[in-house]
Amino acid sequence: MPPEVELFLKTTANTLLKLEIIFFYTRNPATVDTVQGLASRLYRDIEQVRSAVHSLTENGVLEQHELGEGAYQLFTFTADSARRALSRKLYDLYHDDPAARVEIIRKIMTWQQSLREKSEPQA
Predict the structure, then answer these.
(1) pLDDT the model gives residue 46
(2) What pLDDT is recorded for position 123?
(3) How many whole angstroms separate alpha carbon 54 and alpha carbon 118?
(4) In this predicted structure, what is the pLDDT of residue 112?
(5) Which of 17, 30, 78, 114 has the smallest count of CB within 10 Å of its CB?
């Protein structure tokens, strides 16, 4: 896995849900949607999607747009070509290389397990 893709995976696409959202926007780059709309499209819990979308916005993968004096928050894929290229490289690795797919999922699961262990109270 190229180092820049691995860093992107570790710092930005570091959960399965974030990976799924990135892949959705990579496949559908013209999509403009709300958190509720994305949750519906992905068949996911709205609060989990909200958290992931806000994290991806902070990391520059998604852009937030407000309409109706802030009444509506819409999210689009970044216009940043470097971020789009990293998303595409990760998408291509995942979908074109079965060994890379296993590695990506393994890394994410390892990071998530490590975070859970750190957040659990020590006995």
Answers:
(1) 95
(2) 54
(3) 23
(4) 81
(5) 30
Amino acid at position 107, single letter? K
Alpha-carbon span 112 to 123, nearest angstrom: 20
Strand 72-77 with 32-33, pairing: antiparallel
CA nearest 10: which of 115, 120, 116, 117? 115
Compute the distance between CA of residue 116 and CA of residue 97 in angstroms, rounded to an integer: 29
Tell me the whole-structure pTM to 2 decimals.
0.89
Cα dihedral 70, 20, 9, 14, rounded to 10, equals 70
Please tell me the CATH code under which domain 3-112 is placed: 1.10.10.10
pLDDT in tens, 19-41: 999 999 999 999 999 999 999 99
Q: Which distant-in-sequence residues (6+ apart) come within 8 Å of 13 by Cβ?
A: 19, 22, 90, 108
Give domain limits for the chain.
3-112
Task: Please state, in angstroms and rounded to a whole number, the distance separating the CA atoms of residues 68 and 93.
Answer: 39
Q: Name the nearest CA neighbour of 39 among 30, 31, 49.
A: 49
Q: Which helix (H) or strand (E) holds 73?
A: strand 72-77
